[in-house]
TrEMBL record:
GO terms for biological process: DNA-templated DNA replication. This is DNA polymerase III subunit gamma/tau. GO terms for cellular component: DNA polymerase III complex. GO terms for molecular function: ATP binding; DNA binding; DNA-directed DNA polymerase activity; metal ion binding. Belongs to the DnaX/STICHEL family.
Length: 371
């Protein structure tokens, strides 16, 4: 049997300091531990893969540690930390509410709450996907959540806060987890690449981070998939091939053709894109994002809003210098119109081609309007 462990598990944060992109929550929880002001119930909300369960486990481990460091982190060496790391801690109880959502499951949990901890100060109950509990199970849980024993702390985690009844929300300290920034994900992937001896291009890592849509776990899964394909070298090109993403270069070339009023090459380039298996609507959305990035790239103050690698950022800055803001706004209007009418169009390819022809005509259109 292989000893391989996926990156999402191997590099799961073990301390508050190793949490990615949630520094405000880490600081709040550390201060609560420092001042001995821990709430009896926490609700961690946020989209998938942002660190809710990891934070819950870190909190559970830290508050039971008998020899916390100066930075209020678990020592990792005391009996409580060792039993937690080995998965044998009797002080931490995890319940998956998706598969244990009945009143009987909650009653069994309430019976356990009465038992004091064997080692350490607290028993921590982590209930994942808590929004999946039935209404009856929520109601059975209310009294215990409001007045639990001193040794009990509940940490509820959910991706769908709106599904939780108000009486539960009012009994919890609520923490909203942010989607993780692209730059934070890319930096984290870079550290993992160094640890694993993988030669990774920063542009490729940025593209993975963009595709993950703010979820670090998704980014790590994509990273593993591409490393399996490429071996110890992860390039921008290999990421594009694996994720079926349209290369930035196509958009840069199309804008150049539009500025040169070169309809022929624009249509030939789109034909090449279609032959690579890309959807016309996906292309239109990507093109509108490209023009938006050009608008952002025109001003040095807004240049940092571009969530791309440094070399791509320089390309945007360079191309933005060759095109005026009025041209970009007119182009965005043309593309937006194509985006809204794409699904209802009978001949979708023709719609995209007409859009490209209009983009190539903007320059002469503006010159005619000049007095």
């Amino acid at each position: 049997m292989s000893d391989y462990i996926v990156s999402a598990r191997k590099y799961r944060p073990q301390t508050f300091d190793t949490l990615v992109g949630q520094s405000n929550i880490s600081t709040t929880l550390k201060n609560a531990i420092k001042n001995d002001q821990l709430a009896q119930a926490f609700l961690f909300c946020g989209s998938r893969g942002v660190g809710k369960t990891s934070t819950a486990r870190i909190l559970a481990k830290t508050i039971n540690c008998s020899n916390r460091t100066d930075k209020l982190e678990a020592c990792g060496e005391c009996d409580s930390c060792k039993s937690f790391d080995e998965g044998q801690s009797l002080n931490v109880y995890e319940l998956d509410a998706a598969s244990n959502n009945s009143v009987d499951d909650i009653r069994a949990l309430i019976d356990q709450v009465r038992v004091a901890p064997q080692l350490g100060d607290y028993k921590v109950y982590i209930i994942d996907e808590v929004h999946m509990l039935s209404t009856a199970a929520f109601n059975a849980f209310l009294k215990t959540l409001e007045e639990p024993p001193k040794h009990a702390i509940f940490i509820l985690a959910t991706t769908e806060k709106h599904k939780i009844i108000p009486t539960i929300l009012s009994r919890c300290q609520i923490f909203d987890f942010n989607r993780i920034q692209i730059s934070d994900i890319a930096d984290h992937l870079q550290k993992i690449s160094v640890n694993e001896g993988i030669d990774a291009e920063s542009e490729g890592l940025h593209l993975i981070a963009q595709k993950a849509d703010g979820a670090l776990r998704d980014a790590l899964s994509i990273f593993d998939q591409i490393v399996s394909f490429t071996g110890k070298t992860l390039t921008y090109q290999s990421v594009i091939e694996n994720l079926n993403v349209l290369d930035y270069d196509y958009y840069f070339r199309l804008v150049d053709y539009a500025l040169q009023e070169d309809i022929t090459n624009s249509l030939l380039l789109y034909h090449e894109i279609v032959n690579h298996g890309f959807d016309g609507h996906q292309f239109i959305v990507g093109l509108s994002e490209h023009y938006r990035n050009l608008l952002v790239g025109k001003n040095p103050k807004t240049l940092n809003l571009l969530e791309v690698g440094d070399s791509i950022k320089e390309k945007y800055k360079e191309q933005a210098g060759t095109i005026d803001a009025k041209h970009i706004m007119r182009a965005l209007g043309v593309i937006s119109n194509a985006d809204t009418t794409y699904k209802s169009a009978k001949n979708q390819r023709l719609l995209v081609e007409l859009t490209l022809m209009q983009l190539c005509s903007i320059k002469s259109e503006q010159e005619k309007k000049k007095p």
